[in-house]
Specification:
Elements: H1 8-35, H2 40-66, H3 79-96, H4 98-106, H5 109-114, H6 119-132, H7 148-157, H8 161-189, H9 213-238, H10 243-246
Helix pairs in contact: 1-2, 1-4, 1-6, 1-9, 3-9, 4-9, 6-7, 7-8, 8-9
Amino acid sequence: MIDDSASTLVFLGIPSLAAVLVGLLAFGSFSAERRLGTEPRLAARRAAWTGLLALGWAGGTLLIAERGWLARFDARPPPLMLLVVFTLGGSIALGRSRFGQRLLLGLPLWALVGFQAFRLPLELVLHQAALDGTMPVEMSFAGYNFDILSGVSALLLAPALGWAGPGAALIWNIGGLLLLCNIIGIAVAATPLFHAFGPEHLNVWITRPPYVLLPTVLVLAALFGHLLVFGKLRALRRQPVSASSTG
């Protein structure tokens, strides 16, 4: 279902950002494997499989949304809540998986921090969605969502890590994770299950394609990225590295 109230920026912005993140994930996989000494052909094969699996996940969630299953808030448990739990659990599992370990060991800290800059354009798209009336205003930075700070600070911190050091990255990562948890809580509170902001401000748009990609790809990527930074910082504490490895 297409929401006719959504502007072109919103309708194309969400899937475009999701596609960029899938591409970055595949590229990051290739770069990490090469930095860890993997032979180029094998690194390329693993990167291709990473991209294909990510596309398969995104396509599957789009199909579920298209069938209307996620909009069944009368079901117990609601399918949307199951999908959210599965998505968040999946991001944690990815962070602890061999794939996640290869990424955090192979990529520099600045790249893992800089990755979160995608949250800046995402928040601009969400702000437009609120202006369009497609999304509750409470989920934008005109309401209670301050996640735009994560994107802006990632852009500023990533190139400065050479002198700022891992300590700054740790503080930033905790702050970014708290901001992410905040918007997740707001989004859940605004669903018809809780309607915390009233019946005129319900979060139902994410049950439809392409907006379902917001929780299933974009939020997953943000949480996964934070877990990788925590893992990278642990790895750096165990093995001293030069400033160029973190900057």
